[in-house]
Amino acid sequence: MSTTALSPATEPSARVLTLLRDALLPLLLVAEVIFFGLAAPDFLSASNLANVVINSADLALLAAGMTLVVLLAGIDVSVGPMLGVVAWVGATLFVSGLPPVLVVLASVLLGGLLGAINAGLIVGGRISPIIATLGTAAVFKTVLFVLWDSTDVFAGPVLPVLGPARAGGVPLVGLVVLVAFGIFAYVLRRRVFGRRLFAIGNDAEGARLLGVPVGRTSFAAYVLVGALVGLAALIYVGRVGVVQATAGQELTLPAIAAVVVGGTSILGGEGGVLRTLGGLVFIALLQNGVVLMGVPPLWNGVLVGLAVALAVAFDVVTRRTLDKRIGAQK
To answer: Per-residue DSSP letters for 76-125?
Structure first.
C-alpha cells in the first residue's frame, strides 16, 4: 500500500481526518454495545454472544473473501447465490454417505470452480466485476432452483467444527473463523500475494508497469473467494440444517457491509481482513440486538443497507479529500 508524505501545511488537517476515520468504528462498536446492553438485558450474556458467533461464522468467511477483491477495487455480488449452490451439493453429498472430509474437499473445490468462472469473466473477458458477478448471481440462483426442484435437503453439520458444537461454552466454528482471518491477515501483510493486491487496488496500470502479474493475481483472488464460499456453505448447512431454493441469498449484502463498515476502501488499495473482522462484529451485533429488542427482522436489511451507504460515502469523501491534499503539495 503506497503512502505519500504530506506537506506541513496540509499534514495537521489530514492527520485529524485519518484519525477520525480510524477511530470511527471502535467508537461505534462501544456505542452499540452500550445501547443494546441497556436496551436488551440478555444481549451481553455469554449464551447470546456464543449464538452470535455461531450465526455469523458463514458470513465471516464470505466477508474475508470479499475483502480480497475489494482491495483490488473489485467486488463479488454472487457470493450469496454461490453459497446456495455449494450448500445444496455439499448437503446432498453428505446425506448420501460420502465421508465428511471428502464432502469438505468437494465443496471447497466446487466453490473455487465457481469463483474461477467469475474470474474468467472479469480477468479474461474484461467485464466489470459488478456486471460479471450480477450475471453469475442470476445464473447461480437459477441453478439452485433447478437443483432444489421443490425438495428441501436436510443435513446436519458435516464436521463438529462446522456446526454449533461448543467446547467449554466456546463455539468451535469461531475458532475456524479466527484461524482463517489470521491466515489471510498474515498473507495480506507479509506475503507477496498480499502486497500485490494492495498495489493493484491503488493503481492497476502502475502495478502492471512494475511487473506485477495483475491478471493472474486478480484471478487467484476471485478463486479464493469461491473456495471460502465453499467452506462457508458447509457452515451454513450446519447452522440452518436445511437447503432451500433461496439458501444464502440473504448473506451478500451483510458480507459487503462487513468489509466497507470495517474500513476497507471500496475504491481499492486500503484495508484488510482485521478491519473486516471489526466490521463483521458491528454488523452481527446490530442484527442480533435488533432482534432482541423485538424489532421485526425486516428492518435488519434496512439498517445494514443504511450502514453500507454511509460507510461508502464516508470512505469516498475521506479518500478524495486526502488525495486532494496530497496532490496540492505536488
So the answer is: -TTHHHHHHHHHHHHHHHHHTT--HHHHHHHHHHHHHHHHHHHHIIIIIS
